[in-house]
Design goal:
Heat Shock Protein 90; alpha+beta; 3 strands; globular; three-stranded mixed sheet
C-alpha cells in the first residue's frame, strides 16, 4: 500500500484553523483507519491538504471498494455524523 501526503501550492504555515482538536483528530483517525483497512494490498491512500483565501480542506482518498450511496446514507443517519 502507498500512503502519500500532498499540499496545495499555498503555504500551510500561513493557514490558521479553528477546530475542536478532539473531534477533528477523531474524524481524521476514522477516515485514515477506514481508508487503510479497506484498501487492498497494492492500493493507495492519499491525504491532500489545500488552502484558499478562507478555507483549509483535507481530502482523504483511497483505492478501496468504497460504500454504496445507500450505505453512506445509513451510516450518516444511524451514527449521527454531521450533527
Amino acid at each position: 500500500m502507498t500512503l502519500s501526503l500532498t499540499s496545495s501550492s499555498v503555504s500551510l504555515e500561513d493557514a490558521v484553523v479553528s477546530v475542536d482538536e478532539h473531534h477533528f483528530g477523531q474524524a481524521m483517525r476514522c477516515l485514515l483507519c477506514n481508508a487503510i483497512k479497506f484498501t487492498p494490498a497494492g492500493g493507495a491512500v492519499s491525504v491532500k491538504v489545500s488552502v484558499d483565501s478562507s478555507n483549509v480542506r483535507v481530502d482523504v482518498t483511497d483505492t478501496g471498494v468504497g460504500m454504496s450511496a445507500v450505505s453512506q446514507y445509513r451510516t450518516l443517519l444511524y451514527k449521527g455524523y454531521g450533527t
